[in-house]
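Q: Hi! New to this. If I give you a protein sequence and the SMILES for zinc ion, can you show me the bound structure?
A: Yes, paste them in.
Q: Okay, here:
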Amino acid sequence: MLASALLEAFTRGEGQFTVHAGKWQKKDLDPGIDYLINASEHSGVGCQRKVFDTCFDNTAAESDHHECNDSNMSGCPCCNVTSPATCCDIHDPSVFSSFGSHLPKPPQASPHSCLPKYTKNKYNYKLEEALLDWHEDKMVAVYGWACLYDHGAVIMTSTMLNCIVNCAHHQKILTCQDLKRETRWMNSNWFGDEIVNIIQQHAAVGREASLLGELGAAIDNELAAGPLLSLHFTTIFLASGDSLNVPSKCRSRCSACGQEGHNARNCVCPKHASHVSAGDKENVSPPAHLCA
Ligand SMILES: [Zn+2]
Ligand SMILES: [Zn+2]
Ligand SMILES: [Zn+2]
Ligand SMILES: [Zn+2]
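A: Thanks. Here is the predicted structure of the protein with zinc ion bound:
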């Protein structure tokens, strides 16, 4: 079963490099190496030596140790292939323990954010332009003018540039660390701070612009529907005297009687100076006005 799986894989030519549309594309891992590394995972293998025996068809090999030494009954001890005392690190793990890696595995990189689709606005394009300018300057500074046109995107590819614009649009890049995590840009360590600076400058401009936009829209709405609408609400509020229709955050509580919906200066208040009898009015300053 192992043999046929391996043979099939070999005849399919797996483990080779093939050219696709001008790009080098690595196909699956060489099956022999795959079975060797993952011998303990593949069902029916469970031994690394078995993989060698299969790959090199060792069972079919005839031993010739009697040919070079026919005086010895057991043949030539040098050419006689006997089964080794140690099989493999699955069967004899203790023998191989000193070959294990003692280097701690690097921590897994934290995953980048999944960004929703959006339509680029003029601030996104402004940032894109600024990054292109930065890239051009950097290319000239690092490689000189001569390289600019031939190797345009060495420091930052257009895909990377676009990725940075997208992340910046969703406010995912505030620090150099963010830039690394979100884009995996390999030049983050060298130029990350410069890019974050550019992003921050553009974010500030974009925020101001959008705040101004919101404010403008709010004023427009107020002008369009405001005066009539607010007059209407005021009328209901004053006429009903109760506050059931008013959201609680708009309700005020009266300091004189403790009821909601009016204040102590309002004459709907039962404790308003205008409703209090003369007998209760000792030490109370006379009402400021008399309504009704
Ligand atoms: Zn083994
Ligand atoms: Zn020999
Ligand atoms: Zn009053
Ligand atoms: Zn009151």
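A: The pocket of zinc ion (ligand 2) is lined by residues 65, 68-69, 76, 78-79 (CB under 6 Å). Let me know if you'd like me to explain how to read the tokens.
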